[in-house]
Structure formats: C-alpha cells, structure tokens
Amino acid sequence: MTTGGAHASDVPEQFQDPGLEPHQIRLADRSEKNAKRVERQVVAILLVSILASVVGVVGYFAIPVGTTLMDVRLSTLVIGLGLGLGMLGIGIAAAHWAKALMDNTERVEKRKPIPSSPEVREEAVEQIATGIEESRIGRRPVLKGALVGAAALAPLPFVVPLVGGLSNTWDVNRFRHTAWGDVPEGTGGLLPDGSVGRRLATDPDDRPIRAADVTIGSAFAVIPHGLPDEEHYLEEKAKAVVFMTRIDPNELAVSPERRDWSYDGIVAYSKVCTHVGCPVALYEQQTHHLLCPCHQSTFDLADEAKVVFGPAKRALPQLPITVDTDGYLVARSDFHEPVGPSFWERDR
Question: Quick one: where's region Disordered (predicted)?
C-alpha cells in the first residue's frame, strides 16, 4: 500500500512517444517571392565576404612593409580584417541559408540493425540526393556562384602572404652584417687604442649606457646608438637588437678567444632566437638563463649563451663590447656570425 502517491501498478512500463512539435512555416516557405528575398540577402552577405577577401589581398601588395611601424600595423590590420570578414561572411551566409531556405521538414528514422541492408543503403543515397535537391542549390545558380566565389577567395588573405614569404630566396648575407658594424658620426665612442666603436643605447629612447649604470642582475634591451628613423629602420633594428646584463665575473665561463668580448661581467647577446627568430627576453636572474617565449629554447648567458633546453641548435651570437674613454659601453665590432634562425646551416 502506498500513501501520498500513485500505486506501483499505475506506472506504465513504457511512456508514450510525445511525437514532434507542430511544423513552423517560414516566410520563405509561403511564397517564392519571399524565398527570392532571402536568396538576395545571402548573396549580399557572400559579396561582402568576397570584397573583404579582395581588400585583404590588395592590401598585402599595396601597403609597403618595413618603412615605419605604422605601415606594419596597417598592413597587418588590413590582411586580418580581410581574412576575418571573408570567413565570417561565409559562416553567416551559410547559417542564414540553412535556416531560411533549406528544407526544414522534421523527419523521424527509427533505429535499424547494423549493418544496413543494400536496400537501406540505396535509400540513404536517394535521401542525400533529395537533400541536395531540397537545398535548392541547383535551381539557384546566382547563389551557388556567390558561395563558390566567396569560399575560393576567403583563404587568399592568409595564403598569399604565406606563399609570398616562402617564395623569397633565403640570403644569409643579409644577416651577416648589422648596424653594429657601422659607426656614423656622432654615434661612436673613442677607445684607448684610438679606434671608434658604436655606443650601446637603451631601447626605445636611444640613451647611451654607462658601464657604471649596469648592476649585477639588471637587464637591458639594447640598440645601436643613433639608429636613423628612415627606410629599413625596423629591419636594421630587428637584426641589431641585443639583450645585455651583468653577471659576477667569477660565474662566467669564457673561452680564450672571447676574453675581451665582455666588460667586468657585462655581456651582450643577440635577442633574436636561433630557432625561428622570436625575441628572447625572459631572463632568470638566479640561473642566468634567457628563455624564448615562443618554443621555450633556453640559453645560458653565463656560458656564452649556449643552448641548455629547447629546439634551438645554436648559441645566441655574442656582441663584443668594451667601454670608451668616457665610460660608455661600445661595440668592438659587429657580430662574428649571422644573427637569427639557423636556416643558413641547412645549405651546408
């Protein structure tokens, strides 16, 4: 006996199938005029996608890169907007097409044994053919053409810059020389032996650095003093940028040929990772390790920036430095090896 509820015998063994909700008639189903209006809306969205893709590709060729930072940002913005709006337009058009034009009649198919019989397979093929027919793509050539055009052009803002970059011939000579090897008037300091070296300066304010201002454990992003803000400024700065710190001289492992490349524990190394060129900048003061944030290549600055972890295969190039007669840090010479990724080694 039960109280406050139904008896156990009143509970059915199987619940009745509630069935499908009533079918909702859409505006496009009421008349061909409404369907045509929806079709024009989808085509308009796809045309916006096509236009955005074309603008992205044209922007890649029309906006010069490498003169000023604004040009780089504008080029990246145009390519990104072209790619994003191109893909977004296709997605919105596809969703609108599916919701407003494609057949939305509810169908129920009961579960069948596996595998299906040949008859069922034939029926599935017929259903696919019916679905293609009911999507009305065959009867709407303008819509089909717009979709094909948008889908074909949308990836171009991504593909064209990629192919354009890969098509450039790798010229290692471009990375054998940096601005450290040049000493324009007003950018150098006089060395005791009478030679002149280019002064090290802080990035981005271009302030020459005195050796006395570099304390143990401090970190500096360094560029050549007096780097002119003109054409190819970004390229020259990217090649020449240096990471500098001061380490207790007793902790430095220095090879005989590099004994005069540092000054009282102050060492300077290229900031361009030798793996794929990312800027290394994460410095661990206690371990003297410099980490690349892209793929975690790790370099030991206390041991001539040799690789201790990660995919990089070559130590960071070291910039030979000393002080001038006024106490400012200067470069003795340019790097003694190419900076950047070690792609050039693959040609050996």
Answer: 1-22
